[in-house]
């Protein structure tokens, strides 16, 4: 039996007694790993020095990775649905870790194109496949709380950078004693960068293997105890029908949600991409910034923390109030907060920082809630594939957001000389975008029946019991019973691993954020 055959969907059907609470840590193990992509700025200057090139040439590495994320998620979404989460997570882990190793080879050989190929292209494919791989499975295990489930997993993507940033600095200092991450202008040697990339490849390989081992799909017809599908049938914005990925892209609802995600992400990136210089410029007087670079770094960490927390808190809230109302909050309240930030944000850091943090929590919440919104409108049939196609909005926003902000700022003067007034035009542009997204969300209606799959192809839950799903035949692949004691051990160990990583991330952020107000 080949390795790929062992990873097939039919061989990963959950046995009797399998706890659905093992699925979130499996997803978190993958998302905490691939979330490292947002920590590339940590070693960016070291790469610039090593290759003797400019910031733009090194910045292209991140851009390629994000573009490949969107493309691989869109193109590979149907493959992920057909082959199941375990095979998808395995492919993601192989691509992601191979990307680091190829990039390490490029650094050692002084060949920048190998870094583009490794981290950018190969790693970017791992990013896209890994991002969508657990989504459909989580939604099927948690039909009663899809927002909570996807929020837990996608929270890991935001937390991945918070873990990777301090760890990367410590690893570079370990491999190069002359490197001091606390000293401005200090860069790590090429050998330290090679050591960093190889270590990250090995570490993420181990972490992602936890997800590969733990992930399971529920047996056909399974549903959690106490879950009544009739309640969903009575909800106007939640369907029990099925819509294929091919049909979904033909509906106005898909493109309305594409626009909603694009507007929300573009606005969030408007702050995130410019966060450190922005807070310094807002409180600049007589040519000098009242906020130090160290304090600005604390601000960036705080934004990342709210970005991560918003993915869980707001997405879980959507289970209570609905997906459409929560996006009205993200976009409507977000527009108001952006307007206040543009006009009064410079009065005090005690006003500026909370406003920016809430806005970034909406940004993170938008990412985490969109899979549940897609599930409500299109059903669970191919929700992962539909999600993959929708993520092209992220790729577009990743280009549009920085372009909008930087174009306005470049027209107002040189970096280090700007003040609050320079940010008013780009911030009000973001207000306009959020209003467009708000109107698009208002226009969302249930999907017309002509796009539904035939009823015979729809999966209707029939069995009850969370702790004891519908039994799978004893001779079916992957149907061997799980010893309760071993299951409890895995439950504790898996949550402990991801819990320690998340707590470490929060601790590091709080530690640096205290300097924002102390400075």
Whole-number radius of gyration? 23 Å
Helical content stands at over 70%
What is the first-to-last residue Cα distance?
A: 61 Å
Could you say which structural class the secondary elements and strand pairing correspond to?
Answer: mainly alpha
Strand content: under 5%
Number of strands: 2
Subcellular location: Cell membrane
Protein name: OFA family MFS transporter
Pfam families: MFS_1 (PF07690)
InterPro entries: MFS, MFS_dom, MFS_trans_sf, Proton-linked_MCT
Please tag this protein with its features.
single chain; 519 residues; mainly alpha; two-stranded antiparallel sheet; 20 helices; 2 strands; OFA family MFS transporter; membrane; MFS_trans_sf; transmembrane; transmembrane helix
Describe this structure in words.
The chain has 519 residues and is mainly alpha-helical. The protein has helices at residues 3-6, 23-34, 44-51, 55-83, 85-109, 112-132, 135-141, 146-175, 190-214, 229-233, 245-248, 252-272, 275-282, 293-321, 323-344, 349-378, 383-390, 392-412, 420-442, 484-518; strands spanning 284-285, 288-289. It has a two-stranded antiparallel ribbon. Strand 1 (284-285) and strand 2 (288-289) form a beta hairpin. It comes from Marinactinospora rubrisoli. It is a multi-pass membrane protein. Residues 1-449 form the Major facilitator superfamily (MFS) profile domain. The chain crosses the membrane at residues 21-43, 55-76, 88-107, 113-135, 147-167, 187-215, 254-272, 292-314, 326-344, 350-374, 386-405, 425-444, 489-511.
